[in-house]
Amino acid sequence: MADAVIPRWHGDDYQSRFFWLHAAALRDPQRPDVVEVTFEAKEPKAFDDVVVRYDPGRPSSGPYRITVDYHQVKWHSDHSGHFGYERLIDPDFVGGKTFSILQRLAQAKANPNVPKEAAFTLVTTDQITQGDVLGELVSRNDGRLRIHKLFDGTKTDSSRMGQVRKLWREHMKFDSDDKLKELLTDFFIKPNSDSLEDLRGRVSEKFRLVGLLGDETSSTFRYDQAARNLLVRSINGLTRDAFDRLCREENWLQPDTPAGPDRMNVAIRSFTKGVTAADMLEAAPENTLSLVRHFNLRHPRDGVTWDALRDEALPFLEGVLERGKVLRLFLDAHSSLAFLAGTVFGFKSGADVEFLQKGRATSIVWNSADGRDGPDPVVTEEVMGDGKDVAVSVAVTRDTIADVRSYIAENLPSVGRLLMVAPEGGPGPQSVAGGAHAARIADAVAGAVAKVRRPGGTTHLFVAAPNAFSFLLGQHADSMGMCAPYEFDFGGRVDGLYRPTFTI
User: Fold this and answer.
1) Which of 13, 33, 69, 74 is catalytic?
2) Where in this chain does the record put each SMODS-associated and fused to various effectors domain (predicted)?
3) Does 241 fall in a domain?
């Protein structure tokens, strides 16, 4: 019996955590557009798990702003689930016997209470089957079904996309592709979504950011039961006022935390895995930079140069400074871009920056004055030759020195000094205590470079560390001369070596 009951409980908890993740925005002064979040709504059928309403509508990649997001949340207890385009016509895929997800989508769009400016999203822990055409149709940017990809090109039913159109069109009993195109507009699929524990960490992280209590360490997650209690009380929709009252009634407010400055959220993303991180939604469109379209996983696409990426990022970063100097930075990006951000938000800029630093189970806010300090790093120097360049190997999270030495020997004859930097006790995922400790290590690196660098030389940076550290190191760029950060080919997708990015 437990084998059947426990997964059902976990599925309910997954849905409730997805609800709380969105409800946190009801207390966020930078998200006044979120006006109501509903759990187990009365309609529309199948897209009623979590409903988020906006006023004014949120921006989207489509022609108009989205005023309502309707979600179907589909959780599985393991990673064996996968699906392709054919499963979208199978009622069993969404736990039904009669109607498929596409038929439910049509019913939802026909509902007179559903506004035209609505989006419909399938959120699932399942993965798209490798090689299935559906993988080409789901946008990596935001999960939107790529209508132009499905309908552009050959119109015959025998083509790859034509087979998809034919199957879906006949299933829906449509007499034209135009009707299918209308149905699929504003349909989103977000596969391979967070695990149950990841969602717990993300809810805790978001709650802390809006002045509420997190909960990562107890054996049970308090907010799971809280969601069930809401349903028992016939409360499933929360407005901003209602959520504030609930937080006070339940004593969820953080105790006597001094009020900090209102921070402007800034999001930078370049990694292509998954779909748009929820953190990206916390920043206004003008404070959001997504370079995902330029990358294939961690590597720039053919024809894309790191110099061009730098030149696209710099005006964005400079524009952020014009709009505000008290910032919270969300970085789901390459180390080089974090370093670049630090050069713009440097000491002379007047910027006050904190970071959402991701960890194994959850994320916490770091800043250079957070009091989470640690010992000075161990810095050693090695003479490589007579060159005037300096190479710096920063091994905070993993030991990189063998790879760095190999790269220098084969590619950088201009390097005369190699500085090796590691935390006391050696590299590791927990080797940096917090923002203050990261700042201490960055200070030490900059100081060591300043002692050995020669006029006209370049400082080559090989960094294995949290992005918050790379940002803090970037703030010292002026004192390190010409800087050249490098990216490592994790997973050996190309050659398992370092690659230079841009110079600053």
Assistant:
1) 74
2) 315-504
3) yes
180 lies in some domain: no
Q: Domain count of the chain?
A: 4
Q: Which long-range contacts does 425-428 make (Cβ < 8 Å, 24+ apart)?
A: 426/399, 427/395, 427/396, 427/397, 427/398, 427/399, 427/464, 428/397, 428/398
Closest by CA position to 176, among listed 199, 151, 158, 140: 151
Last residue of a domain, one of 227, 254, 281: 254
Whole-model pTM above 0.90?
A: no
CB 397 within 8 Å of CB 427: yes
Sequence-ordered strand ranges (E) for 240-377: 264-269, 288-290, 295-296, 299-300, 326-332, 352-358, 363-366
Burial, 206: exposed, middle or buried (Cβ in 10 Å; 0-12, 13-18, 19+)? Answer: buried
- DSSP-derived 3-state class of residue 15: helix
Q: Cβ neighbours of residue 127 under 8 Å, at least 6 residues apart?
A: 79, 81, 82, 83, 191, 192
28/209 Cα distance (integer angstroms): 8
**Is the torsion defined by CA of 310, 316, 322, 325 positive or negative?**
negative
In this structure, the number of other CB atoms found within 10 A of the CB of residue 128 comes to 21
- Closest by Cα among 331, 285, 304 to 466: 331
The whole-number pLDDT of residue 1 equals: 42
Count of residues making up the chain: 504
**Residue of 13, 33, 48, 49 marked active site:** 49
Selected residue with higher pLDDT from 443 and 491: 443
Query: pLDDT tens for residues 108-134?
Result: 999 999 999 999 999 998 999 999 999
Per the domain annotation, does 373 fall within a domain? no
* Domain-ending residue, one of 318, 344, 366: 366
User: What are φ and ψ of residue 128, in 5° steps?
Assistant: -70, 135
List the helix and strand counts (H, then E) for the chain. 14, 21
Q: Which residue has the tokens 């209590």?
A: 213
Structural domain containing residue 362: 264-366
Encode 351-370: b = buried (16+ Cβ within 10 Å), e = exposed.
bbbbbbbbeeebbbbbbbeb
Collect all residues with Cβ–Cβ distance below 8 Å to 1 and sequence separation of at least 6. none
Q: Is 49 a catalytic residue?
A: yes
428-486 pLDDT, tens digit each:
888 998 889 999 999 999 999 999 999 999 999 999 999 999 999 999 999 999 999 99
Residues 135 and 86 in one domain: yes
Indicate which residue of 15, 72, 103, 357 is catalytic.
Answer: 72
- Give the C-alpha separation, 408 to 16, whole Å: 51
Contacts of 291 (CB under 8 A, 6+ apart): 268, 269, 270, 309, 312, 313, 333, 337
Q: What is the per-residue DSSP string for 181-196?
A: HHHHTTEEEE-S---H
**Same domain for 89 and 152?**
no
Tell me: do 308 and 420 sit in the same domain: no
